[in-house]
Amino acid sequence: GVLLTCIISNFVFATDDKYFSQDMKKSDPEMVKEFFESWELLRQSHLDPQALDKALSLLRPYLQSHSEDPVLLWKWSEFMFYKGESIKDKKQRLAIYWEALDHARKSLDKSPSLEAHFWTGCIAARLAEMEKGFTAMKLVNEALKRLEQVSQMDPQHYLSAPADTILAAIYIKAPWPVKDLDTAKDYLLKSYDKDPNLTMTCEKLSAYYLVTKDYEKAETEAKKCLAIENPTFVWDSVLYNWPKVRKILAKAQAEKR
Question: 128, 140 in Cβ contact below 8 A?
Answer without folding.
Answer: yes
